[in-house]
Amino acid sequence: MAADYAKFNTEFEIMGGYLSPVSDAYRKAGLASAEHRIRMCEIAVNETSHWLMVDSWEAVQKEYQPTAVVLDHFDHEINEVLGGLETPNGERRHVRVALLAGADLIQTMSMPGVWSDKDLDHILGRYGTFIVERTGTDIDDALASLQQWKDNIYVIQQLIQNDVSSTKIRLFLRREMSVQYLIPAPVIRYIEEHDLYDEDGAASISSNNEKGRAEKGKAVGGSSTDGGERS
Predict the structure, then answer these.
(1) Between these two residues, 107 and 39, which has the higher pLDDT value?
(2) Average pLDDT for residues 21-50, to the nearest whole number?
(3) pLDDT at position 15, please?
(4) What order do you get walking across the sheet with 99-102 strand by strand?
């Protein structure tokens, strides 16, 4: 969805994308360990995408890393360490780094006291963000207080409504409800094998109508955010 938006509505050319799971220092209730979340993201990416990758730097940090710092990490590694992008004629070009997140993130950015003005200017001013609409979030209201960065905020409309979130996936698993077709089947198998996301230590994800294994379709991990949901 985000890649299509960039292709048809901007002058950008997508070179790649990274999932950056948050570290264990974030201490959000219900999260699996960083080791498991990194592996689930890797499994999901390998099964479903040719342009997405997983970066474990944020996840292995002992201290919580703000989104602005994580974006700086990507910018440094891509444009300074790697020297940017090499074109077919051998020329090196600078790569534009941007944040991709759900609409609930932008909503928190408009809430007083949640984000520092310095971080907001660094994230939205220097890098910019692509925001995917989410059911229940008033995008226009959220953007009202972020007008100074409006040229760096790209809102991606959901042509097909999708309300799946990592929080809902974890809730379904704990209630022993099926997540078949919501996240990749190999990720479901990983959850079962390691007894993740169950209050009693077991990942019970069988379908109500089936006795066999269910399938899982969206990685229980995601891009880095500060005020919004972390995975």
Answers:
(1) 39
(2) 93
(3) 93
(4) 99-102, 129-132, 153-156
Q: Mean pLDDT score of the chain, rounded to an integer?
A: 84
The span from the first CA to the last CA of the chain, in angstroms, equals 20
Go through 38-67 and write b for each residue having 16 or more CB atoms within 10 A of its CB, e for each that does not: bbbbbbbbeeeeeebebbbebbebeeebbb
Residue type, 136: G
Identify the pLDDT of residue 199.
62
pLDDT band at 141 (very low <50, low <70, confident <90, very high): confident
Q: How far is CA 215 from CA 20, 31, 218, in A?
A: 23, 20, 10
Q: Which of 88, 86, 84, 60 is nearest to 74 (CA)?
A: 84
CB burial of 68-79 (b: ≥16 within 10 Å; e: otherwise) equals: bebbbbbbeebb
Strand partners, 154: 130
Antiparallel, parallel or unpaired: β 17-19 and 99-102 = unpaired
Give the single-character DSSP code of 126.
I
SS3 131: strand
Maximum distance among all alpha carbons in the chain? 57
